[in-house]
Amino acid sequence: MTDFALFPGCLIPTRVPSYEVSLRKTAERLGVNFVEMENLTCCAPVGVLSLDYLTSLSLGARNLAIVEEMGLDTMCTPCNGCFEGLDRTATILNKDPETLEKVNEILAEVGKEYNGTITVRHLAEIYYDDVGIDKIKEMMVKPLDALTVGIRPGCHLFRPIEVIGIDYSERYFFLDDLIAATGAESVYYKHRLRCCGGLLRNVSGDIVEGILRKRLIELKEGNVDCVVTVCPLCFLQFDLGQKLVERKFKEKYDLPTLTYSELLGLGMGLSAEELGLQTHRIKVDKLLAKIG
Amino acid sequence: MEEEPRIGVFVCHCGLNIGAVVDAKAVAEYAATLPNVIVSVDNKYTCSDPGQEEIKKAVKNESLNRVIVASCSPRMHEPTFRKAVEEVGLNKYLMEMVNIREHVSWVHMQEKEKATEKAKDLVRMAVMRAALLQALPKKEVTILDRALVIGGGVTGINAALDLANQGFKTYLVEKTPAIGGYMAMLDKTFPTLDCSICILAPMMVDAGNHPNIELLTYSEITKVDGFVGNFKVKVKKKPRYVDMDLCNGCGDCGEVCPVRVPNSFDVNLGKRGAAYVPFPQAVPLKYTIDSENCLNFNYGICQTCQKICPKHAIDFNQAEEEIEIDVGTIVVATGFETYNPAPKREYGYGVYNNVITSIEFERIKNAAGPTHGKVLRPSDGKEPLRVGFIQCVGSRDYRVGHEYCSNVCCMISIKQAVQLKEKHPKAEVYIFAIDIRAFGKGFEEIYRRARDMGVVFIKGRAAEVIEDPKTGNLLVSAEDLYVGKQLEIELDMVVLATALLPRADAKELAQTLNISLGQEGFFLEAHPKLRPVDTFTDGIFLAGASAGPKDVPECVAQGKAAASAAACLMARGKIEIEAITADVDNELCIGCELCTLECPYGAIQMIEELNKAEVIEDVCKGCGTCAAACPQFAIFMKHYTDEQILAQVRAALTDVKERPLIVAFTCNWCSYGGADLAGISRYQYPTNARIIRLMCSGRVDPTFVFEAFKLGADGVLVSGCHIGDCHYATGNYRTETRYIAMKHALKQAGIDPRRLRLEWVSASEGEKFASVIREMVEELEQMPALLPKMERT
Amino acid sequence: MSEGEYKVPIKEPIKTKDLDPDFKYEIADTYLGRHITACFKCGACTGGCPVGILTEIYKPRQIIGEALLGMREKVLTGGELWLCATCYTCEDRCPQKVNITDVIIALRNMAFREGHTPEALIEQARNMVETGWIQKTTASMDKRREELGLSRLPKMAVEDMQKIVKATGFIKYLYKKEDKK
Known about the structure:
heterotrimer; A: alpha/beta; Glutathione S-transferase Yfyf (Class Pi), Chain A, domain 2; Rossmann fold; 2 domains; four-stranded parallel β-sheet; 15 helices; 51% helix; C: mainly alpha; Fumarate Reductase Iron-sulfur Protein, Chain B, domain 2; elongated
């Protein structure tokens, strides 16, 4: 397996550090080697793209140029926002020499150049394609068979399809296989691939909590023990956001939320403490009890 | 024959079609200055009676021996003007057309001056060619008075009956064991709600009993040779393992057969035995044993049917048979197939049991269908009283690559909705449609009837279907644009109105028959408006849904139209064909045999004793690939001689006013048609190309290309039919081989090989032709100017 | 008005003079907005929109329709644009391959340059330009990271970031004249 330049993004290091802990610990055990990136800028995701297309591409390209300088060809990011932003940048620039030239004119200001050689991949893809289900199964020491899980893949893991380069985003999802590899069961519940509204957090609290509440109700109806996601924004929504919904609507959901690498960590026998699960707003005690 | 050329040039305004862009008067004035031009005039409409009269008068009064008409595409009016000059005693091959409408005024609408210059160039090229044109003798062939109809659906049945009733022996070839096609599967037909099989069955029986019709069911066309009037067709008869003469259709074999497999006639919803007729009214009512599922063929056991058959008709040793039939004309009526909507995953077909397709619903509500006409939903056999129809599934959908409207689905769903409401007036029926297309006779009326019965029309494409796993009920999300709200409608069953697609084997059949496919994969008619049942191959006609989605009355009309077109030919008994064939100059031929290898038809043989090649004129189709290959220039390609083509090349490059200048060689069948379509569709592209029409891209002799570069062409385009679609079977393979060699030679001569381009453009790819020229001009503009003095290596 | 009568808001139809016929071309000229003219207003986008289901005011089909009509002012200043959660579900289902979300983003780009952006997003972008982090960072974050055995937050290339946003012209629109430093 090749080495990956790790682009952790901003949400994970600042707001979801337990995701970072678990991804580093599980990656190490699975033989995934990350090379740290330095001197980064923001990935310039949809929030920046929404304001200025060229700025978003240029900031993204600067980060991709750093991967080239490191002598690597693949960037790994565990964040859906970074994944969409940087994958979009790479997809456009790797194919369109005209735009690349325009972007490189801007990068010249900071003494950098992007040559269009980098592939951007999400951590979940690397776990699925490069590590593989068999290897993950092999590493499981603690059976999670008792758990039923509702997945929240995060929209930008599989959309827009033209950027991600897949046929179609509906229904089948490789995350189901990743969950199954840990022994837990991924439950099919209504609207499981629908958006959680996270990116509207700054625009309209009413809409965000309205959407999130719908998803929480659907998860409850699906009788899941917990939510598992690979997106830090989904994580924040279903963890912290869940609290806000509970307060606003005076309801109780009490649905623990884990990132996939946290679930994996538990299966590998790491303790909740080691994984930093105490930092979650929705307590995971019930879940731990169920695993035993 | 060596008389001085006296050329008349007639420039047409075509009303404003040409006149608004090209200064026709200036073109005519320019033509008058060219060598050998005696008369040069412009007319409002050259194709009109007075326009033709003017040509005839000029030929007589000025003793013209060449006529050039600069107007529309020769594919439009070449026959008109050929006839006109013949009427005043001029050989029709001495009339040349210049296409200044489809190739100029319609594609350069914003560039009047450049367009006029281009028109002048094209006229100059024609004048130089015309001086070298030669009269050719008439060539006639006899037409056999027998016809072949391929496809036994309602279209083919009608075509066959009409032909047979006019006294022509007709072979009706059907792939499946029985004729009837999709119409036999339908319950009712829209908009009148006639029972489908009730109106079709009598016709099927007529076809089965007609003394002039020979039914060849369970049979396929494998090879077609020959040409108009004289086709040799090989038909593969698959073994039925039942003697057709002995079987009386009693059905004992089917009854005792222990095998149960899905019946494709019931869209696999019902079951049949391995000994079966697809449906009770089948014509011929003869059983078939399906060897794939029969126990005898798989395990060597059972043979119960053989034991029970009272007529001893079952013969497990029957073998596949190939027969050859000779026919004068062919009608293609192979129909369509329906879209499998599984890839439209948001609708959950194949995942949710209660999501079905239109044709499945048609079988479910059919009294002869798997549920004996009881509408029951698949998941639990309950009667669905809340049903939704989702329109345009696979139609008008760029995501799945079918951009067209399937024409019939709106009416199918409305018909099905009305039928549901007839049975259960209180049933809740929704139709989710982007818009309802009710354009035919009686369509609007049934649409109104459906609304009066309480069918709810939601204006909007359904976004997704979700199943409640507990109840099997379905939730359809959609926006209703009429009320501007989002809906989530709970339903018991959802019917997807799926697209009509070209048959999967259409491409293969097109190659066998040497006819063209349109962009969507349906067979291509010779002209979308005026020649709807003709193909570009004389003697082969199209009918029904094989050329695009159609409803029953349209299919019937087309079946009859194609029969009539075929009958016209056969009634005449003879037809004049193009005299464009190759000829070998014995003095120049060195007996290298290259041409014999080149010819896709084996039309060139060696005269052993002389060691010279010889063309068998009746077999030669006139593509000219032999002439392009001949190292000695010993092959004389009638009407497309080396000298005639080189004259055009040279004329294109004299007095060049526009750079970069592209010389474009297009084949007559696909690429010239593609360029015409660009015109008809008004796709605009730069004026830089000068098109030279050849019969086949295989005619492009490297000499033509090198001569063009030598004289200062900036680019050369060679364009032909897509590989596999060549009108001359394999002519374009030769093109490709030569193209690679030419690229290499150009490189060695220090000419950027990108200046030569090979593009496959079909007659349905107008947009592609335009964009090829656009791209080429863009690319050539980037390159440094090429010096016209470049010597040939 | 007498007691019990309906209160009816009165309006004028949209008139030709209210429409900018060039607006659609302006959008179609951008990379992200290039497919807008293919829309045939089927509503598949809106039928499955997770935001549209919750609120009357956001309908992708309507925004595209208004843009095609030329309702420049309404589209760019109305604020609906900013309610798209960018989940891209609509793009996935559009039968005409209109990249609806991208079109919305193209429109947002225009609205931004004309000064109609929700303040929160401007704030976020300014934060990115000034600190390198699009999220606000606090000292407690480093503390928590340390407790979890992680390194401190990495240093961001703020200087480069600022050069880039200057070169793309982004910074011009991010700060109004009075608060430019």
